[in-house]
Amino acid sequence: MSKRVCLVHYHEIGLKGKNRATFENQLVNNLHRALRGHGVETVKRVSGHILVSFASGQATMEEARVISQVPGVARVSLAYLCGLDEAEYCAAAVKALGEAGPFETFKVHARRSSTSYELHTLDIHQLVGGVLCEAYPTKKVRMHDPDVIVYVLVVQGNVYVYAASMVGVGGLPVGTAGKVVTLLSSGFDSPVATWMVGRRGAVCVPVHFSGRPMTADTSEGLCRDIVEALQPAGLIGRLYVVPFGERQREISLAVPQSLRIITYRRVMLAVAERIAQLEGAKALVTGESLGQVASQTLDNIAAVNEIASMPILRPLIGSDKMEIMRRAEQIGTHEISSQSAEDCCTLFMPRRPETHARIDAVHEAWDSFDHDAMIEQLVNAVEYQDFDHCPSYKPPRNMRAWHRELAPAFE
Ligand code: ATP
Ligand code: MG
Questions:
Q1: Is the overall model pTM greater than 0.85, yes or no?
Q2: Spatial contact of 155 and 46, defined as CB atoms under 8 Å apart
Q3: Which pLDDT band, with edges at 50, 70 and 90, does 199 fall under?
Q4: Is the bond preceding 350 in cis, omega lying within 30 degrees of 0?
Q5: Which of 69, 91, 161, 190 could be stapled to 287 by a disulfide with Cβ–Cβ 3.0 to 4.6 Å?
Q6: Ligand 1: distance of its center to the CA of 222 in Å?
Q7: Among 179-183, 216-220, 290-294, 360-364, which stretch is predicted with the lowest mean pLDDT?
């Protein structure tokens, strides 16, 4: 019986010139990590694809599904790995076509890659096509837009045969686009925003502001669950938590009620930027979507934005809630985000938040308390927990200790 392997297809995008080897090596590393525990034998480049083989010799749909979640993977096929023996690869083609789901029409697409094999692609089309016509006498060959294409890929001494493939998440391998700090609440939006930036190749370092000690630590638990749910994408190595409750109380006493949220947000962004500097991250990410809630009007975004000097990425700015919820379902965070938890956002909320903040009023509120001291205090109180999900995550030099549970960064 032929071996079954996973053949990983990636987009040509990002593969040009010097980037190509970096991209491919990173994807190979990330696939190794994602498939830990699946008995992987080899992960290697084969003629514009990545070949994953398993000690069992029999890759399954489950393994293909794991691979499909890794950023950079456009498609993945369960392929039969055959020798150059015609009878063997023709039999594999019959099986592959039989497994591809209901169909009426098909064609064979052969490709030879730097090989000395005597049959040329046209010969292979005829040979395999003839065998398939015999095996499926009621089905028709159709060259233009057939229901199924049976691929026959000849590389060195091997022939890979496959028909069905699973769509992957696309994007670029995590680790090829630098590092970002993402502001993670346990709501629907920020986990999706985090995933989206990770899918473009960034290593993501989430920072969560909790209401502790004024609230329970439920939101922290939900953020941990979100990090675990995003594990298949392999984009997070560490979660930071900032206990913000006491400082929020101070802010709520110092600034006009209507400007509380904006002021909390400015402090959050300033602290996140400090963590980003420690981490060597080059941008911040939020889950904001224009006009979704009071704090996300253009005036308010501007009033908060000015506090940071790093770029702030808002991947969901033009998405609507339904799209975001659908994506949350796909990436497995929807159910977690539907559980309500008190976090710092529910604490000391004003009855009527400002929707169009005047910048001079915001500055006056900002100067009414010692914001620098507060930011410093919050950075020093930061806690973190490590996750073994992201091979490209490198912790800052002065925070190398591995914390299995949430623990203070600086004692
Ligand atoms: P989300 O669904 O991500 O919570 P939201 O619709 O509730 O977003 P806001 O509460 O205005 O909107 O939050 C806007 C963004 O600010 C969030 O997407 C997130 O990036 C950041 N943010 C909000 N609360 C927190 C928090 N407690 N910790 C860290 N970041 C937060
Ligand atoms: Mg929220």
A1: yes
A2: yes
A3: very high
A4: no
A5: 190
A6: 14
A7: 290-294
| Beta strand pairing call for 105-113 and 40-46 | unpaired
**What are φ and ψ of residue 222, in 5° steps?**
-65, -40
- Residue in the structure block whose two tokens are 């985000």: 337
What is the residue whose two structure tokens read 């019959």? 94
**Which atom, in ligand 1's list, is nearest to the CA of 286?**
20
CATH code matching the domain that covers 3-167, chosen among 3.90.1570.10, 3.30.2130.30, 3.60.110.10, 3.40.1110.10:
3.30.2130.30
User: CB within 6 Å of ligand 1 — which residues?
Assistant: 183-185, 187-190, 208-209, 268, 286-288, 292-293, 295-296, 343-345
Q: Which two tokens stand for residue 296?
A: 């996300």
Nearest CA to ligand 1 atom 6: 189
Classify domain 179-410 by CATH number: 3.40.50.620
Q: Which of 182, 183, 223 to mutate to test the pocket of ligand 1 (most atoms within 8 A of CB)?
A: 183
Q: What is the pLDDT of residues 188-197, one digit of tens each?
A: 999 999 999 9
**In the chain, what is the greatest distance between 2 CA atoms, to the nearest angstrom?**
84
Q: Check residue 112 and give its pLDDT.
A: 93
Domain positions in the chain are: 3-167, 179-410
CA of 341 to the centre of ligand 2 (A): 10
Place of tokens 């911040």: 284
